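Q: I'm teaching a short session on how sequence maps to structure, and I want students to see two examples side by side rather than one. Could you give me a first protein with its sequence written out and its structure tokens following it? Keep the formatting plain so it prints cleanly on a handout.
A: Of course. Example one:
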Amino acid sequence: MGACGASPRRIFIHLFLNTRLAGTIALVAAVHLLGGHWVVLQTVAWSGMFAAYTQDFSLGAAIGKTFDGGDPCSLCDAVKTGRDQERDAPFAESNTKLDAVLTKAVALASPASAPSTSLGDVTKKKFPSAVSGPTRISTTPFSS
């Protein structure tokens, strides 16, 4: 047993499962960001169309009718509409205003055995404006 009471095997299994879960979540997020959800939906639509066409037509004819684009199913239409809307959507513009407040530097008491130079003295010499008082900075993204 380790110092914390858990065996090395349990620690390894715990880390493996957490790493695997995090990797899976990252993979799903990346696929979604790259538009993979449309590929999955289109594959489901083609599978359904192919299954329906194989009941009435030969295998070759079913494949041809599935991928010819002449008679798309409702899911194919929904995927096409969704892709087009996503492609034509403008990027969101940020109108947020960022506010930052800078405060005075804090001087910490030094131990008795250390030299008596305080942080405030060093800061005043190198950056006089940093200890002069609170400063409010307001920036707007993309302002000219």
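Q: Perfect. Now a second example for contrast.
A: Example two:
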Amino acid sequence: MQKQKNNWKPVKVLSVIFMAGLLLVLLPKFETEVKAVTEITANLTPGSLGGGLLWSGEMILSSETLTIDNTIRIVGDTTLDVPSGKTLIINSSCFISKSTTLNIIGNGTINFRDIQMDGGTINLLSGTLNGNHINMNNSSSAYTPSSIDNKIVINGGTLNLERVVFNNYNPCTPEIIINSGQLNVIQRDGNFGSYPLQFSVDGSITVNGGAVTIKGGNSTKGNGGSGTWPNNHTCSINVNGGTLTVNGGNGSNGGVGGYGIDNANITLGGGTLTVSGGFSSNGERQMSLKQCSVEITSGKNYSVNGSGNYTGSQLNSAFGADTTYVTLAPLSEYNVGITAGAGMTKTTDSGDASQTGVMGALTDVVYTADDAYFFPEGYTVSPVNGVSVTRNSYSQITVSGTPTADTSIT
């Protein structure tokens, strides 16, 4: 028997500034449009242009810090590059127009008050974007709202918000998609009148990778804001990869922290869901999921708090619809191949020598010694990635275990 073996070039815009000054005298209420590859400098602060700034094309920030006090409207596909170490501060609303895309690149920081979306897309590729709230499907008297779905796509970087509003002014289905990077929607402490995620239309959040954190508000009095407020609409959260962390808020002085998510349909298709409730004034753990259904996509297997093997149907029976603490993690799938030595034969009623998509323990594989062969005392095979060989007798061994990686054992 065998033992084992942006190459962009900034364009100076001094002439545009002179022209802008002329326009300011003749038409002080007009907005000024900046096109093509444009270096954003302090000289282009919209407050000096009388009435706001229209952006399209490629924009790059050259100064260390730039503060913009008037509104900005994205009127065409725009790439905004804020390099590492630089900061862009937008103190007024930024409007994303119908069928336009705002691409955000660079590793710098953008701080904004709010973003109003009229049927466009935000594509975050890198850097850090910090803001109060994003209103998906805006109804503004100044602009005609669009029936085109609004979309936020995170392909890198970090988006930090206090609130996202899925609004009800048009028949849209706004969505947020996280492929990598991070989304944090964390309710402000003591703010118990609003919610980090407010759904006034059916909307969805899809986590394909990266990390998402949703947290209800802490409260020193009254109730903290919940992580979602569905308002009789469907909040669908699909976790296909990455991690979704849901935290409830803490309460003190008689206050009750907000739920992490209240009334949503959560589907697990390969990502991890971690739920943790906050604590009340008397130290009791509070709920973080309330009235939520949690289902597993067909063909996926999950553990609950590190044990069990749940598939298919709703998991509410495993941890309850009103939840304080739980982690639901996908069981990893591994391939195991066993190469038998000379003089042994696998039994027909035991597991296959080659097993694919193993989740949890593999099916035991039993070998018996052929005529004129035996397994001597002290027969050993070094374990590999959680898979081991046990000598049962002179005539039999068993291969078993829970693989922690793709494994070949001989």
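Q: What should students look for in example two?
A: Point them to this: The longest strand covers residues 175-186. Also worth mentioning: DSSP finds two helices and 34 strands in the chain.
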